[in-house]
Amino acid sequence: MKVLLLALFVSVSLLGITSKAAENPNPQTEQRIRQLEEKLRCLVCQNQTLADSNAELASDLRRQVREQVAAGRSDDQIIDYLVQRYGDFVLYEPPFKATTVLLWVGPFALLVAAALVLISILRRRRRAPEEPALGPEDKRVIERVLGPADAPERDGSAR
Amino acid sequence: MKRVLWPLGIFIVLVGFLAVGLKLDPREVPSPLVGKPAPAFELPVLHQPEKRFVPADMRGKVWLLNVWASWCVSCREEHPVLLELAKSDVLPILGLNYKDRGEDANRWLMQFGNPYQLSAVDADGRIGIDYGVYGVPETYLIDAEGVIRYKQIGPLTRAILDEKVLPLAKALKK
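ok -> structure tokens follow
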């Protein structure tokens, strides 16, 4: 029984190896294809990469990528090929150019601006003069409202 | 007063951005092909497998290339508009039957009517990729020199035809 199980186990694991080998004739190429597919966006389900998407168009585009890799084209050539047809949108990471400067730089610019505002507020607060001591004018007003300086409440409690 | 105005100002700007963002359609990806020559292809013609179609056949004419498929639901929505346009005879409409089966495509045209002068058969979707197709239906307005002048992603409507496609076609014909 044990031998049978072992034989089964070995054959199943061998099966796994052979099927994988058929899929990856060259693991390096396979990895390159995978990396390319992760750089490219599926246009149907727009928040997924080509590698992740199950859309039919994505599988067609994956086939294109595979064929072009097999034909010996470079990564840049393949990406150009798709950008020519689908525009920059097909790139999962937008390129840095005049129209995308705000996209790339914007958040950092906002962060710097916020830091500057914070610093200036803190500085202003530190530099602000201490509350001036009560002048004679203030004292007169207080006396008029609250009565003479010796507190009447204390007098009341003493009685 | 200033203390209230600042956050209010920021809030209003933010609302402005969000309001504009709501109106943008993320499905509409600007096509890099507008203003470029329509990619060449040679494909068999639906119904007439012995005939082949190349876009160069349409040189000297302003025409529409409409990408359609029998499995495409929005194509049904658009179909009456195309039929009406075909009847008015202002613009020739040619079809690109995208990733479809011949018999399904034929049945579909029998059932709903055929606005196309002919339909080229792109069974495996390769030509679709050359044209940057990612959501059927898509429609290209191509001028006499074979340059793509306009691309409609999604169904054509009467309003889009009247406001964009037909005026542009008229200008291109001159």
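Chain A touches chain B through 14 residues (CB under 8 Å).
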